[in-house]
Specification:
The chain is α+β, with helices and mostly antiparallel strands. The protein contains 13 helices and 19 strands. The protein has an eight-stranded antiparallel β-sheet with strand order 3-2-1-18-17-16-15-14. Helix 4 crosses helix 9. The longest helix is centred in the first third of the chain and has 14 residues.
Length: 410
């Protein structure tokens, strides 16, 4: 079990890694922290269910010089999305919906959705939908929705002025989704790829079909069965000492405190359950979740999803790669040779993507520079945790991939 593995001595040679080559991760990690580029770094590499490598270095709070803990709790932001997608697919297996069901079947306001054509925030020209937005398009980010907080265009501006903010923990999820439905989409559903609030809408659909909050559904379908005891929408009072402060990068490329652990909004009661980015979690919990996916929906004796369901999730659901659908780069990475499945990106062609890896890898990350990937071919699960916004500050994810794959010898 992962919880036991993380406290044991790891033996990379037993699972096909060269120990000396894998140890190259440690000085790389130490350099980022010592140069004050990261507050800390926490890495874990599992192969064939066995711990091949783990390292933890740095500070929970840089100013106080408080060391980060092995069971630390981190903001995982968009790494929430795959958890929301797994919960939705578990309901799909129960017949709650079909992937090609229109979103308006569950959120009536989307029936009259329109699509942006031209204009400015106060005078947008729009047209009718050619085809309705579907559940699958929410899962693979071809829905036409965008992120208001990061989109400088007219649609993003309108989202901000209408206070469509899924990061507002005191707002109501359903009311926010309905306000969103009144704002034009960026493009006709299915025609482009655009990262946005699609998974927040998916989270609300989960609430609609179950009659429960997203938090309750996560606990019942995922967290309780997998014994994920450190994954929440807000930090319990008895776990605040494990929670880490959040940092950003200054112009001099040094660290600046953005949000201390004790004063974080994640320590306050939550009304908004954001399926797109609202969770906090630990290394142990997230590794268990990933291993469940890698093992075909099963972890120990708990079957969360069926094997064929996981296989479907880990296939490319775009007509090509992300670059061919209008997004040539994303965060710090080019998108040629990278597709998108249900809830995460799929590596289609390592040569085209210019990165070490295997076709079929499933990956994504979070706004605070956290990341994960699953490599079914090599039987790998890898997680990286830190707390630095934005995630595009440094090419950490690509560098870590090279450091892991260069150490494989068997």
């Amino acid at each position: 079990m992962v919880v036991e593995l993380l406290s044991e001595e790891f033996k990379p040679g037993l699972v096909g890694f060269c120990p000396a080559r894998l140890e190259r991760i440690s000085p790389w990690l130490k350099r980022y922290v010592d140069e004050r580029k990261l507050p800390f770094g926490h890495v874990a590499v599992l192969r064939k269910g066995q711990l091949a490598f783990t390292d933890l270095y740095g500070y929970r709070d840089v100013e106080e010089r408080t060391l980060v803990q092995e069971d630390g709790i981190y903001r995982i932001y968009s790494m929430t999305k795959i958890i929301t997608t797994v919960a939705a697919m578990a309901l799909y297996e129960r017949g709650a919906f079909q992937l090609d069901d229109p979103v308006y079947k569950f959120v009536d306001e989307f029936k009259n959705a329109r699509v942006f054509v031209s204009g400015r925030k106060d005078s947008i020209n729009s047209v009718k939908l050619e085809t309705p937005m579907t559940i699958r398009q929410l899962m693979n980010h071809t829905s036409g929705l965008t992120y208001g907080a990061f989109d400088p265009g007219p649609v993003g501006q309108l989202m901000r002025s209408e206070k469509v903010d899924f990061g507002n923990m005191k707002a109501n999820l359903g009311e926010t989704v309905r306000r969103l439905a009144s704002i034009p989409l960026c493009f006709q559903p299915g025609s482009q790829w655009r990262y946005g609030v699609s998974t927040d809408v998916l989270g609300y659909i989960i609430e609609v079909v179950t009659g429960k909050t997203l938090s309750q559904v996560f606990n019942e379908l995922i967290f309780n069965p997998l014994n994920m005891t450190d994954t929440f929408f807000h930090v319990p009072k008895n776990k605040v000492e494990k929670f880490c402060s959040l940092y950003t990068r200054t112009k001099s490329k040094s660290l600046k405190l953005l949000e201390c652990a004790e004063g974080s909004r994640f320590c306050e009661p939550v009304n908004m359950y954001s399926g797109g980015g609202g969770l906090i979690s630990s290394m142990r919990d997230y590794l268990v979740f990933l291993e469940m996916i890698r093992c075909g929906g099963r972890y120990n004796d708990m079957q969360i999803l069926g094997r064929k369901t996981v296989e479907l999730m880990l296939r490319n659901h775009l007509s090509g790669d992300i670059a061919s659908m209008g997004q040539p780069t994303f965060s710090e990475m080019p998108t040629e040779g990278i597709g998108f499945g249900l809830g995460g990106a799929i590596l289609l062609d390592p040569a085209k993507a210019q990165i070490l890896g295997s076709a079929g890898e499933f990956t994504w990350g979070g706004m605070a520079s956290t990341a994960f990937w699953i490599d079914p071919e090599e039987e790998l699960s890898v997680v990286f945790m830190t707390q630095l916004i934005p995630s595009s500050c440094y090419p950490i994810r690509r560098e870590l991939r090279v450091l892991v794959y260069q150490a494989l010898v068997d």
